[in-house]
Amino acid sequence: FKFLSDTQYVVNCSGYIDHSDFSNGGINIMNNHFKSVFNLVNFSINLKVKSLIHIGSSDEYGNNTSPIHESTRESPISPYSLGKITSTHYLQQCFRQGILNTVVFRPFLVFGEGQSKNRYLPYLIDNCIHDRNFKVTKGDQIRDYLYIKDFNRALIKAFNNQKAYGEVFNIASGFPISIREVTESVKEIIGKGNPIYGGINYREGESMELYANISKAKEILNWEPKVKFRDALKKVINWYQE
């Protein structure tokens, strides 16, 4: 621990995004998410850090009606989201018992430069840049996209904010947009690509509407998104083209 002795804050970004069910290895997904948080809490206590910020997930809300507020009761739809919720409640208990200052962020769809192509937006951009025919769902899902630099600003505002300790925050744009609209925007900006709508089925149990109420983050973190979706999209597309 010696070389980490001056660490003041810990941010937990760990965890694979895997929506497999319990019949397909889901118990390992759930356990790995919780165990990593449990170990990180002990690590943070030993380092005597000011706070631990945990990156949870909007999936913790399941199929609740949008726009979703933090007071909404969680409703996990996968072992992944159950592991995230378990971690959230454990961290809040740590705070209530005076063991550790904790903050939980629930990002919705964060995007930006350098994102892996197994995520939808980079997959979409890559196919349009190379002018391919590619399969997508019908695109009726409503989602909430936030640019990574706006997310990072929220993170910085939570570090030494005592009002944030013990709390859960939705970190999102708060503006709903359909996947079809996202797809058409990328195609229009790049000027090529041929998405085949309906070529892929919706994921079983997939939430068709998932977007956030971000009033709590505005009030307590004094934060709100600054970069408009289309402006951020152009920046990201430019990065992938270069």
Care to give the gist of this entry?
This protein is of the alpha/beta class and 242 residues long. The protein has 7 helices and 10 strands. The model has no long low-confidence stretch (mean pLDDT 94).
Q: In words, what does this structure look like?
A:
The chain is of the alpha/beta class and 242 residues long. It has helices at 26-47, 79-96, 120-129, 148-158, 179-190, 215-220, 229-241, and strands at residues 9-12, 51-55, 102-107, 109-111, 133-136, 142-143, 145-147, 168-171, 177-178, 194-197. Helix 3 (120-129) packs parallel to helix 5 and helix 5 crosses helix 7.
Question: What topology emerges from the helices and strands here?
Answer:
Blueprint: E1 9-12, H1 26-47, E2 51-55, H2 79-96, E3 102-107, E4 109-111, H3 120-129, E5 133-136, E6 142-143, E7 145-147, H4 148-158, E8 168-171, E9 177-178, H5 179-190, E10 194-197, H6 215-220, H7 229-241
Parallel strand pairs: 1-2, 2-3, 3-8, 4-7, 5-10
Antiparallel strand pairs: 6-9
Helix pairs in contact: 1-2, 3-5, 5-7
Rounded to the nearest angstrom, the distance between the terminal CA atoms is 40 Å
Which range does the strand content fall in?
15-25%
Unreliable residue stretches:
none
The count of strands amounts to 10
What is the number of helices?
A: 7
Tell me the overall shape: globular
The pLDDT mean sits at 94
Spatial strand sequence of the major β-sheet:
1-2-3-8
Q: Report Rg.
A: 19 Å
Q: Largest sheet, described in full? A: 4 strands, parallel
The helicity comes to 25-40%
Find the structural class using helix and strand composition.
Answer: alpha/beta
**Topology order in helix (H) and strand (E) letters:** EHEHEEHEEEHEEHEHH
